[in-house]
Write the structure tokens for this entry.
Amino acid sequence: MPTTKKQALQMIKSLPEKATWDDIMYEIYVRKKIEAGVVAADEGKVMRHEDVKKRFL
């Protein structure tokens, strides 16, 4: 697996030339949250859909 720095560089290179700092920060934020969610799921730290619905409805 590539290093975090290499992944970040690859992600930035894939953005359009007119990407702003906000665009870059958003992409980093989303990537970080997705990776944290995958780790949590792998560790079994998830809630059933029904439980989430009860919590928010």
Helices lie at 4-14, 21-42, 49-56. The radius of gyration is 16 Å.
